[in-house]
Amino acid sequence: MMSIPDISGAQHKANPHPLYARLRSEAPVVRTVLGDGKPAWLVTRYSDVAVALKDPRLGKDPLRALSAEEQARQVPWMPGFLRPMSKNMLDQDPPDHTRLRALVHQVFTPRRVEELRGRVEAITERLVARARARGALDLLEELALPLPMAVICELLGIPEADWPRFRTWTNRLTGIVTKVDMVRAMPSLYMFVRYLRALMERRRRTGGEDLIAALVRAEEAGSRLSEDELIAMVMLLVVAGHETTVNLIASGTLALLDDPESLDRMRREPGLIKPAVEELLRFTSPVDLATERYTTEDVAFGEHVVPRGQRLIAVLGSANHDEQVFASPGRVTLDRDPNRHLAFGNGVHYCLGAPLARLEAQIAFPAIVRDLPELRLAVPRSSLTWKPSLPLRGLTRLPVRCAAAPVYSVPRAARPPEAGTQL
Q: Alpha helices, DSSP H only, in 259-336?
């Protein structure tokens, strides 16, 4: 077994590409042990990753890969309040996955998402103006995070006063790598599920026009959605509906700061924004590793065979930097064409929220480069740190400075309060 460092650790996430290049060259399909102490096969070449994401022999339900005897030995016990997590759409295969996805697909079509443009622009303008008034911000916590969090929570109908709690809970969820992490996350998971059960009950009594109310109506319509599936769906939408975009905006901004020519070009050529967002998705790969799959029979990738019953992980961050597919993959090329990146996955599990993430990024990046002049890091580049996580790749913070605007040029709602004013 090839020696591979912890790919969920902060040190790896800071610069995963040397390891990925070595794996693509020397061991494109390799067995390792992940941070949870369990073995998994990593697939790193673009051609293999693209196939793995669509291969029906790679299931999301681990029990499909096991015999009845093996299932009896390996099904773990879990507390009752965690049952909804096993109903997560990401961990389901057709036909259950198809049924669950159909319930929310219409909300995330490009046409429906485009209807949110005005709201996304208004939120972005307010956040950027507030930063400009001060001349400094943590771009991750004060812009990259609140923008997608506000949009997905408003879609779901979650009260604004509760958004900070959701951020705490999702941080716990996305930071689970080891068994110890899972134990530490238990209180947050319990509170998350309890909150959602109470929110569902309020929607059953009062109704509403938000997405949660619509899902409750679907649950009440019959067997299309169980309560556990309903809770799992909302948890997934909250986490996936903002976490990828947070990482894209923050990591993408850092990539532009690292490459002043690209930053200047994006400012000078706003018409490049759509291919630029696709390139920043490829370059930063906010989802570093696809969620795990399980072989339901022996599966060959070229000369490498992964036996039945094995956990397999397609490494999106490696595929998106494969030099056999992308010229100069370690360089940002804003007008790269073609750009067949796999940042949103592929196949039936292709990211449901891709149109929303694209819209938010296509609005956020122009506002950042246009309305935050003289943008620069406020701390040494070497001091930036990355979150430990198995699937995701994202910064812990991104302190920046810009040229502060005169107070009179900043919208009143974004101006700093005068002395003695109550916040």
A: 260-268, 273-284, 316-319
* pLDDT of res. 268: 96
Predicted confidence at residue 413, as pLDDT, reads: 47
Question: Residue 358's domain is classified under what CATH number?
Answer: 1.10.630.10
| Structural domain of 274 | 10-404
Q: Which amino acid is at 395?
A: L
Residue length of the chain: 423
Which of 126, 9, 102 lies closest to 385, judged by CA? 9
Contacts of 275 (CB under 8 A, 6+ apart): 334, 335, 336, 337, 339
The continuous run of DSSP H or E covering 401 comes out as strand 399-401
Q: How many domains, in total, are found in the chain?
A: 1
Q: Which residues of 227-245 are buried (b: 16+ CB within 10 A; e: fewer)?
A: eebbbbbbbbbbbbbbbbb
Weakly modelled stretches of the chain, pLDDT under 50: 70-73, 77, 407-408, 412-423
Cα–chain center distance at 362: 16
